[in-house]
Amino acid sequence: MDKIDRKILTLLQKDATMPVAEIGRKVGLSTTPCWRRIQKMEEDGVIQRRVAVLDPGKVNVGVTVFVSVKTNEHNDAWMRKFAGVVDEFPEVVEFYRMSGDVDYLMRVVVPDIGAYDTFYKRLIGKINLTDVSSAFAMGQIKYTTALPLDFAIISDDDK
């Protein structure tokens, strides 16, 4: 990866629908070399996919709940089972295994508290959890899907 690749990625993270010709102009490349770089980053898995970012309120999932889970089960089979259960719930948009006091953390989006209660009852009906704690977000202060690229390793040729 070089500085031009980072510029391309910055542009794509802001707007993945930007035409390749426009990206090329902004980074100082013609269309074909720019397209080749994008294809290479897709092949290498740097660009995993291109998606549309939706407004949660406009699709009726304006309530965000952070769900902390503790368990007494700490083995691979149980973790795989739990991951499979969580995968069945489209309301869970992020899911992490954690260090510290909490074993797992989920970000859940729902229309309202009633919908969260329904989600919670379905979840605990499918798997035994030691402790589940929910925190409702009162407001979103910062949200981005763009990753910081300052830490991306730049090839020696481009330093």
UniProtKB/TrEMBL annotation:
Keywords: DNA-binding, Transcription, Transcription regulation. GO terms for cellular component: cytosol. Pfam families: AsnC_trans_reg (PF01037), HTH_AsnC-type (PF13404). It comes from the Bacteria. GO terms for biological process: regulation of DNA-templated transcription; response to amino acid. PANTHER family: DNA-BINDING TRANSCRIPTIONAL ACTIVATOR DECR (PTHR30154:SF17), LEUCINE-RESPONSIVE REGULATORY PROTEIN (PTHR30154). This is Lrp/AsnC family transcriptional regulator.
